[in-house]
Amino acid sequence: MPLTEKLSSSQLVALLPAADPEQLAETLVAFANADGGTVYIGLTEDGHPTGDIYPEEINGLFQQAEALCNPPVRVEWQQSEWSGEFVFVGRIRRSPDLHTLRDGRVLVRASAENRPLHGEKLSQLASTRSIGDYEAEPVAGATRADFEDKLLEEFLGKWEERQGRPLTRPLDDLLIEMGWLTAERLPTIAGLLLFGRNPQSFIPRSGLTFVRFEGIGLRAENGEVGYGRREEINGALPQIIQRTWDILQEEMRRGAVVRSLQREEKWLYPPAAIREALVNAIAHRDYRLHGLGVEVRIFSDRLEIMSPGGLPGFITVDNIVDEHFSRNPRIVTGLFQWRFIEELGLGVDLMIEEMINAGHPPPVFSAKLSSFTVVFKNVVDHAPQSGPRLSTNERQAKALAFIQRQGRITNRDYQELCPDVTPETLRLDLADLVERSVLLKVGAKRGTYYILR
């Protein structure tokens, strides 16, 4: 990779400036237990070569790091030179085994960190080791010709815009590096879903079903099928997102008002929250499940977005606000570069905040073994808000999500959710939500609890 590329640590990339065997071993284990990735030895966090790594010491580093991993992690190493300085690049695939460090720790790569796992999270990860790195597998029968040139051209424009410069090397080299083509230039699952001319001919049920029901149930009052609009949406993922978003805007638009000579659209649901949930459902679904597709269902009182596959890795409904882990990091990276995702890792917080700002309850998250669903409930007869928008910190967002699931929250509940935060800070968090009429305080002293107002 030339030095002109912009590199930074992420779920799939680790930059290690020093020849530290313990840090390298931790990174190898974390990548192998997650979705694989690439480690660069000899680069600073801002992507510049340190000039402190030499070939004579690198074999010893590899051996020491390997001795700390149980079982050993397979790595494809390559020596490179950046601005005349040595940089060593290692590529790690997702492993079917659960890897630990010699001291017994289990790490997983999440965002740009190597995070330790314990208890239920560790058990959950161990139970998923048979999944494999599905999105990086080549698609049987597909060739490079199955990529849509127009989609590649559109993507390249977005990529160059985000990078701030033109691509100066062959496009296929970038596609291979990002995991969208194999080294033999065959489409991977992720690549075909992002750029394929007709992905559904190779990957069944990889599209989306939209249904609008007239009432609050699946059937009308007379017992007949109660939907008024149904559409099957196929194509590459960017096309599915855009077409579905166009439909949702039609269904959610309630008109417009003019304030200070400016036209403002009125929406049944906050668009930012719904768009975020839509993109998340498509980006994070389990594409191994060919019997299910993403479903978007609108009822008179709610909007539901269902994504096939349970929550990935160590993510649970309880930690979904402040933990981030991707089942399909190559697909996520593609949608991020395409600008369908503006900032990684902030989706759940955004949904909660936007719904509260619009006067609705926070979204409800429901996880099953084969699906994950987000439910947005509307409050049609609420007055438009005026004044400053409500913002919540991550702790408050976790509290609101807890109340949505449990119906109430106590101070003790909140302390268990945020064990590293002082009780006084948590008390002030809840008092702030009460003052802003988001929560209602019930009871006194030890019997105090909080509910949504």
Structure report:
- The chain is of the alpha+beta class and 453 residues long.
- It has 4 domains: 117 residues, Methyltransferase, Cobalt-precorrin-4 Transmethylase, Domain 2 (2-Layer Sandwich), CATH 3.30.950.30; 55 residues, no CATH class; 170 residues, Heat Shock Protein 90; 49 residues, Arc Repressor Mutant, subunit A (Orthogonal Bundle).
- Helices cover 32% and strands 21% of the residues.
- The protein contains 13 helices and 18 strands.
- Strands 10-9-13-14-16-15 form a 6-stranded mixed sheet.
- Strand 17 and strand 18 form a beta hairpin.
- The longest helix is centred in the middle third of the chain and has 16 residues.
- The N and C termini lie far apart (55 Å).
- The relative contact order is 0.08.
Q: Give the tally of structural domains.
A: 4
Beta-strand content bin: 15-25%
User: Quick one: CATH class of the largest domain?
Assistant: Alpha Beta
Structural class: alpha+beta
Terminal Cα separation, in Å? 55 Å
